[in-house]
Amino acid sequence: MDYKIIWSPDALEDIEAIGEFVARDSDLYAESTIQKIF
What we know:
Protein name: Type II toxin-antitoxin system RelE/ParE family toxin
Helix content: 55-70%
Radius of gyration: 11 Å
């Protein structure tokens, strides 16, 4: 069964912050991490 996730603005900001944090060490891993979330 497929589910549709509706992301709140706060959640999207948190995900962006996670990506920025990971990107401090690796842009590649930051992109990979964000793609796994979505």
